[in-house]
Amino acid sequence: QLQLVESGGGVVQPGGSLRLSCAAAGFLLDHYTIGWFRQAPGKEREGVSCISSRETITNYADSVKGRFFVSRDNTKNTVYLQMGDLKPEDTAVYYCGAVYSLGAQNMCFMSTQSYGYQYIGQGTRVTVSS
Predict the structure, then answer these.
(1) Is there a contact between 13 and 85 (Cβ–Cβ < 8 Å)?
(2) Contact call for residues 117 and 109 (beta carbons, < 8 A)
(3) What's the pLDDT at 104?
(4) N or C: which end of the chain has fewer CB within 10 A?
(5) C-alpha span between 62 and 106 (Å, rounded)
(6) Per-residue pLDDT averaged across 70-83, rounded?
């Protein structure tokens, strides 16, 4: 069974940091572009970041630029989202998604509602509160 599993969420104070992980089971991430998304209560799912299959391209939503950093370790079949200087407005359920990108190694896109991504994990909750 092909699936993505997110982990690393939790409760953190404003200004704190968390590292989210996205691990793949049942397939290798080498040829997949990975996107990170989040959904706050009552809001649409929004794109946060993406990383191409060979880590040549990364992109970030304006709201997280300079605070979040995406990376991947294909030897561990895992992608990471390092989040720093967290703010209450970062509170959401965070999801990772994967889309096959062999032959398009610079593919990296963030989409509303994670449109275009073939696999989406179950999410991990991040709460930023004092």
Answers:
(1) no
(2) no
(3) 87
(4) N
(5) 20
(6) 96
- pLDDT at position 9 is 98
Can you give the pLDDT at residue 58? 97
**Whole-number pLDDT of residue 120:** 96
Give the phi and the psi of residue 31 in degrees, each rounded to 5.
-110, 25
Residues 6+ apart with CB under 8 A from 53: 29, 30, 31, 32, 33, 101, 102, 105, 107
Check residue 110 and give its pLDDT. Answer: 92
Residue 103, pLDDT above cutoff 90: no
Number of H helices, E strands in the chain: 0, 11
CA dist., res. 74 & res. 77, Å (int): 5
pLDDT of residue 92: 98
E-state strands within the chain: 3-7, 10-12, 18-25, 32-39, 46-51, 58-60, 68-73, 78-83, 92-100, 119-120, 124-128
* Cα gap 43→74, rounded to integer Å: 32
Residues listed for the chain = 130
Q: What is the C-alpha separation between 95 and 18, in angstroms, rounded?
A: 14
